[in-house]
Amino acid sequence: MFNERTSVGLDVHARSVAAAAIDGVTGELFQARLTPSHDEIRGWVRALPGPVAVTYEAGPTGFGLARALSGDGIRCVVAAPSKLQRPSGDRVKTDARDAVHLARLLRLDEVTAVVVPSADQEAARDLVRAREDCRGDLMRARHRLSKLLLRHGIVYSGGQAWTGVHDAWLRRQHFDAPAVKMAFESDYDAVLATGARRDRLDAAITALATDSEFTPVVRRLSCLRGVSTLTSFALAVEIGDWRRFTGNTIGSFVGLVPSEYSSGASRVQGSITKTGNTHARRLLIEAAWHHRTRYRPGATMLARWDLASPAARARGDQGNRRLHARWARFDEHHKRPVIANVAIARELAGWCWSLATLEGDAMAG
């Protein structure tokens, strides 16, 4: 329930902030145009009739403002933009009107909040997403190089690409035309530089995963097949507070549940919603493919289990057997692999939740 006297809506941009406040006692509306300075915003909010609650939409400006306001004892709700109610007949959109709209929604307690991470958690999330961006850059750089060679009739047929043998083969390529030679060297240098950047980020993430607040959750999640240290750390920082969910609702958060269009007696389900956290969804879908092959714990899995508690090892083994058995049933019924894998990923999300919340740690990822 909304208990504060004044509700404040902030439409935050990189260079300006439109502010609106509604006094619940007098009904007076206060509006201002502010700079993004946290000190200026806090000063304006403190001058309002208290107590005060503030809301603004989650976006590229991050959560620094929410932490600054909370540090002053002001309740700040960071709104999920996709969950905000907007009048269908409203065809005028300005920053000032958006701020007033946010203030009204806050007073009505109709704002769906997102979890505000700590500064350390946000920094870890930035590192994980930098690695994700680097992965995409490396894939595109490799595609550019391979397609350049393909245009000149050069195709590698010596086995798996992007291995040491493949790299030696690339170094042996020679072009007579200076322009083509320069283009090849540029694309090859991009592949090497991006690969080295990825390796540096991997090393930084591995170091943080072994000695940080995320370490207990990372070790438990790593008891599952396909969930390496990098994947488990990324899931830990992307999901944040695992206790917000249950084993059934975690799949909805990562957009792995079917969409539905039902009315009256009809019920129609479609493809997955693909809402929520995109990074976590991709990681779960990739990890789910590992459960298709025969399950037999190898040296890598056993080494991960050694770092986890006996309860986590038992739960991880149970999840691995269950997910592989489901894959086997899907294959027996000739289910399309890509559809079956999404179902496995949805259940894998539930097993990750089970392990993340297993030991009752105060730290939830």
Structure explained in plain terms:
- This protein is α/β, with parallel strands linked by helices and 365 residues long.
- It has three domains: 6-107, ATPase, nucleotide binding domain (Nucleotidyltransferase, domain 5, 2-Layer Sandwich); 119-212, no CATH class; 216-356, no CATH class.
- Helices cover 52% and strands 12% of the residues.
- Residues 360-365 have low confidence and may be disordered.
Characteristic key phrases:
single chain, 365 residues, alpha/beta, Nucleotidyltransferase, domain 5, 5-stranded mixed beta sheet, 7 strands, 12% strand
Structural topology:
Elements lengths: L5 E7 L4 E7 L5 E6 L3 H9 L5 E6 L6 H8 L3 E5 L15 H13 L11 H33 L12 H8 L6 H33 L4 H7 L7 H11 L10 H4 L4 E6 L2 E7 L5 H12 L9 H8 L3 H23 L4 H20 L9
Parallel strand pairs: 1-4, 4-5
Antiparallel strand pairs: 1-2, 2-3, 6-7
Helix pairs in contact: 4-6, 4-8, 7-8, 8-10, 10-13, 12-13
Short description:
The chain has 365 residues and is an alpha/beta fold. The protein has helices at 38-46, 64-71, 95-107, 119-151, 164-171, 178-210, 215-221, 229-239, 250-253, 278-289, 299-306, 310-332, 337-356, and strands spanning 6-12, 17-23, 29-34, 52-57, 75-79, 258-263, 266-272. Helix 4 (119-151) runs antiparallel to helix 6, helix 4 crosses helix 8 and helix 8 (229-239) packs antiparallel against helix 10.
